[in-house]
Amino acid sequence: MRTSIATVCLSGGLTEKLHACAAAGFDGVEIMDADLVAADESPEEIRALCARLGLGIEMFQPFRDVEGVTDEVFADTLRRASAKFATMARLGADLVLVCSNVATATIDDDELAARQLGALADLAAEKGIRIAYEAMAWGTYVNDYRHSWRIVEKADRPNLGICLDSFHILSRGDDPTGIEQIDGDKIFFLQLADAPVLDMDLLSWSRHHRLFPGEGGFDLPGFLAHVLAAGYGGPLSLEVFNDTFRQTDPVRTAEHALRSLLWLADRTAHAHGEGDGDAGVARPPRAVDFVEIAGADLAVADEMLAQLGFRFRGRHRSKPVRLWSYGDARIVLDEQARDERPALTGIGFVVDDADAAATRAARLGARRIFRRTYAGEQDLPAVSAPDGTGVYWSAAPEDRSWVAEFEGGVGGESTDGVIDHVNLGYHWSEFDEAVLFAASALALTTESSAEVPGPRGLVRSQVMRTRDGVVRIPINLAPPTAPLPSRHIAIRCDDVSAVARRARAAGLEFLRIPANYYDDLAARFGLDDAALDELRNLGLLYDRDGSGEFVHFYTPTIGGVFLEFVERRGGYEGYGALNAPIRLAAQRNEEVRRGVAGSPA
Amino acid sequence: MRTSIATVCLSGGLTEKLHACAAAGFDGVEIMDADLVAADESPEEIRALCARLGLGIEMFQPFRDVEGVTDEVFADTLRRASAKFATMARLGADLVLVCSNVATATIDDDELAARQLGALADLAAEKGIRIAYEAMAWGTYVNDYRHSWRIVEKADRPNLGICLDSFHILSRGDDPTGIEQIDGDKIFFLQLADAPVLDMDLLSWSRHHRLFPGEGGFDLPGFLAHVLAAGYGGPLSLEVFNDTFRQTDPVRTAEHALRSLLWLADRTAHAHGEGDGDAGVARPPRAVDFVEIAGADLAVADEMLAQLGFRFRGRHRSKPVRLWSYGDARIVLDEQARDERPALTGIGFVVDDADAAATRAARLGARRIFRRTYAGEQDLPAVSAPDGTGVYWSAAPEDRSWVAEFEGGVGGESTDGVIDHVNLGYHWSEFDEAVLFAASALALTTESSAEVPGPRGLVRSQVMRTRDGVVRIPINLAPPTAPLPSRHIAIRCDDVSAVARRARAAGLEFLRIPANYYDDLAARFGLDDAALDELRNLGLLYDRDGSGEFVHFYTPTIGGVFLEFVERRGGYEGYGALNAPIRLAAQRNEEVRRGVAGSPA
To answer: Which residues bind Mg(2+) (chains A, B) (predicted)?
Structure first.
């Protein structure tokens, strides 16, 4: 299917937007009149640019508030329309959007609306223009797609059809199954947008908070399936009004946007058994294979991993890379990096078909990474996530030959560890993109989200995971004024107290937890003195819910990365959200002590 | 009255917050338990710090969800309370907030609620602690202040009273006049917050969007008057949950917060005829006296002003400062600045009593500016706005002796000009502060606000003005990723076409308006060809509403400032909002042409 995007989704001037859409690989665009009006280029120049870039002008959106008005107002509307149809002829656009009247409508009369839309369609027909009539969710009288369709049927003009917009239908909670009753040839256009589930007025929600498919709470695959079942064959066009995307780099946003459409098409096809094999349909990973920390000098990390009880598995036979493991949790220390500051730079996943996973991610717009490999080394298929984090795939554990490339390590009696979750922090402008990447390229699904008050502002956190919980990636969003949040690797073990005791005996200082925290624990949970003393003495944190308990501790931060050890008791499925503000405050206190924290502004 | 602020309003750790509150001049604080729990300092250390800083601990907020529960749940609540009362004893706090149950309430029974609150009060009484019970707007059963008051009356304990919070009352649209029926001695605490008028769920509105008094849409002076009429004599305490204030510099935010309380106290007193003379009550300015542009070399500005028909009024007799005027619009060019980039750095206002205005602004926390003056020069009382912009006051026009300090200018036949408005751009984190400064120190009132889509994101604009419209200051908010928006001075004249023709003849190039704009004007307003040709040929912009017409043009930008000439026909009161996106796009096109615009990211 053709892919398309409304120019209003992107920042910049119209020509910048068009270049960005073409660079990302869109087939066409929906041009907002406001973008054309503000452009230095004439309609003819824009038409020529689109032709050169291989972009179809799928639709033009030049005016609103047509139907349900007095004859006098409608006469002026026809005059306006006539002028805009002339612009469309210059632009080479032949489909125009007409939204249901939200402002000037004074008459609630379907006969009148059909008559006026019919008259407009007749005027358009003289110019070879088709009209797509759309029910806006806050239309004065027409705000339901079934209603707009009834009016279009009543008007009965060959060049008058309807436009469907997922936001206007799903935001109202309308049932989209009725779409299948509409003649697919009369669905002239399809606009797609996701949105977070919010309880606010429709107009503000629509104008500021729309998201690309896969990033919000709407069932876009289900919606699209109904539209396709109706027989729609036109483009899938994104129309996303979002305060963030309006100000971020248009090339990057356009790539991000296209990824959302490809994800949506795959998901929809998959749900209907039409996937094109493994390459087309995302399969969730079976495990985290390893996490990579890179930096110019990682001796401090070596020491910390040893203190925590990690086993040294050796040095890579041809690169300055070392492997440590704690049971099934593997951490790769990579000193090939030029950056002085250690950082969490890569994650490996175990999947059934590594090449298929990488191919699929590349098809979603991710850049392939090719690393220098030598004879006999396993070449893990890999891509770069939008923020630059490396993503590697390897086949099922029995094939994990890359581990054998590390030499000189200690023997392999295993402990009980496994990677519980990997927490990735992002700048605020990269958050939605990161969520979509995890949903599309990594085939993870959206779990809970939380807001954590920290000393530098609210931190938003969105957990992405496999349904079985084996892979969990909480994605954190830093407030605009804060630096990039540290990332961390959480290791799950059977007895976190034992790990803590051993690590402390080996000389590791944990993140310092304030004494007041333990007083609060006592008040909150009524723990007995012995349990409380153990937590306090070991510097452990604690949480409990109806299903079980969670005990954990954090290491100090090395550069931009730290470790957490967690123990889950019973059916506890969370991440100690109540303790996250304590952790953020303690990390900032630590920075203040070390003199590296600036004023929050 | 005592001033107080909840620690949750500010960023940073608890000790940083306390220092910021003291530096701003607050009398006390309301400590959120979460801030204490995350602090490295013990309750005793926090108590000592508050004592040293001269801050009273007005209230402590350690737990929620008390009343309306089963006996079993309530027994655990008493256990929790007991632990927190012990913390309060260490902290030296004797008032505790109890919010109406939003979570664990299962029983809708006022008798039970009164019995449980009474039992809690009896436990508190043993420790010398008083309880303030507050109806949360989204309380499960108790969400109206009249209801919480009925329960408190029913419980009838000397140490149990109510807490009123303006947000929880005004957000629900509840009538606050009933507050006067409450025994003032039983109002144990008052929390104040403003908020923008939004149509969204109460919890999200409350947690993210509260504002300091004077910045939102609530009638806080009216609300406070009812509370004072009831006989309340406790502190005025701010409790503002706001995503921006959580991440901005706590010292600056605390100053900003205190300014809002002082504004509120003045407004409330004024409304009741209790102002302490001119120093206490803000009087709106009578006119804009001048606008100052500063820069290291302003020769380009001289040339532009001359081309526009400004008259050169001379050089200052002792400083590198020049004065230009266009009728009653005066622009001061100040080359004392070290900054190479010309900027709008000051505004002068005409008021009845300049010293009183400056004294009042200083009392609101603004810093006085003292400039080097010589014998015989008029010393204009002045302060620095929070962002550094200079604000000067001079007495009524007949006393405007500072103009006579400029020598060597041309004669004074006057033209028709006057300053229509001065548009000030701010970084996103300074917007609310700027609005409050205009409301409090400048005594302007809030008019319309608008959102303008620009190529770098949405620009929010809030007009601040005198009721008579003689002084109008639109305040613009840049999106986070965008640079500080340019500021501009708009001159109103009787015949903008004549000004434009003369300026063009003198060689001035205006901001280039795209040809597509005029095609759109034709479609939008149905202007005749002659009118359209005149607009197009002169590069003028046009708007029309039911009351009149607006014709205007923009000059190119010099550094961070440009000029606008406007003509208002009939009763048009707006600012050409539909043209603002054209202006933003044209300015960006200009930057791209000049090679100074980067990618929007």
So the answer is: 421, 488, 564
Q: Which of B321, B468, B470 is nearest to B390 (CA)?
A: B321
Contact B266, B277 (CB under 8 A): no
Residue B38 has pLDDT above 90, yes or no: yes
* SS3 labels along B230-279: CCCCCCEEECCCECCCCCCCHHHHHHHHHHHHHHHHHHHHHHCCCCCCCC
Burial class (CB in 10 A: 0-12, 13-18, 19+), B197: exposed
Integer Cα distance of A335 and A296 in angstroms: 5
Give the three-state DSSP class for A295. coil
Residue B453's contacts (CB-CB under 8 Å, 6 or more residues apart) are A8, A34, A246, B459, B581
pLDDT in tens, B367-395: 998 876 666 678 889 999 988 999 999 98
**Which value does ipTM take for this structure?**
0.90
Q: Which two tokens stand for residue B269?
A: 């007193």
List CB contacts (< 8 A) between A39 and chain B: 514, 516, 585
Whether the per-residue pLDDT at A109 is higher than 60: the answer is: yes
- Distant-in-sequence, close-in-space partners of B206: CB < 8 Å, separation ≥ 6: B137, B167, B168, B171, B195, B241
Query: Across-strand partners of A569?
Result: A549
| Sheet-wide strand order for A287-294 | A367-368, A382-384, A390-394, A343-350, A287-294, A329-334, A321-326, A311-316, A406-408
Locate the domains of chain A by residue range. 3-271, 287-594
d(CA B154, CA B151) in angstroms, rounded, equals 5
Q: Which residues are bridge partners to A134 per DSSP?
A: A99
Confidence band (pLDDT; 50, 70, 90) for B403?
A: confident
Interface test with A, best of B9, B10, B11, B61 (most A CBs within 10 A): B11
CA dist., res. B456 & res. B459, Å (int): 9
Residue A61 near residue A32 (C-beta atoms within 8 A): yes
Which one, of B213, B151, B216, lies nearest residue B182 by Cα? B151
Report the topology of domain A3-271: TIM Barrel (3.20.20)
Write the DSSP symbol of residue A459. Answer: E
What CA–CA distance (Å, rounded) separates A252 from A347? 22
- Computed from CA positions of residues A270, A274, A277, A279, in that sequence, does the dihedral angle turn out positive or negative? negative
Residue B242 in contact with partner chain A when CB distance is under 8 A: no
Asked if residue B564 belongs to a known ligand binding site, the reply is yes
Q: CA A290 to CA A274: how far, in whole Å?
A: 33
Please give the pLDDT value at position A273.
58
Per-residue pLDDT at A397 exceeds 80: no
Contact A485, A476 (CB under 8 A): yes
Helix A299-308 / helix A496-505 crossing angle, nearest 10 deg: 130
Half-sphere exposure of B35 (CA within 13 A, CB side): 25
- Residue B595's region, left for phi above 0, alpha for psi from -120 to 50, else beta, is left
Give the minimum alpha-carbon distance from B83 to chain A in angstroms, rounded to a whole number. 5
Q: How far apart are CA A563 and CA A550, in angstroms?
A: 16
- Give the sheet arrangement for strand A541-544, strand by strand: A445-454, A457-465, A472-477, A418-426, A487-492, A561-570, A548-554, A541-544
Residue of A nearest to B13 (CA): A455
- As annotated, the binding site of A for a divalent metal cation includes 134, 165, 191, 239
Annotate A70-121 with DSSP letters as a single string. Answer: -HHHHHHHHHHHHHHHHHHHHHT--EEEEEPPSSS-----HHHHHHHHHHHH
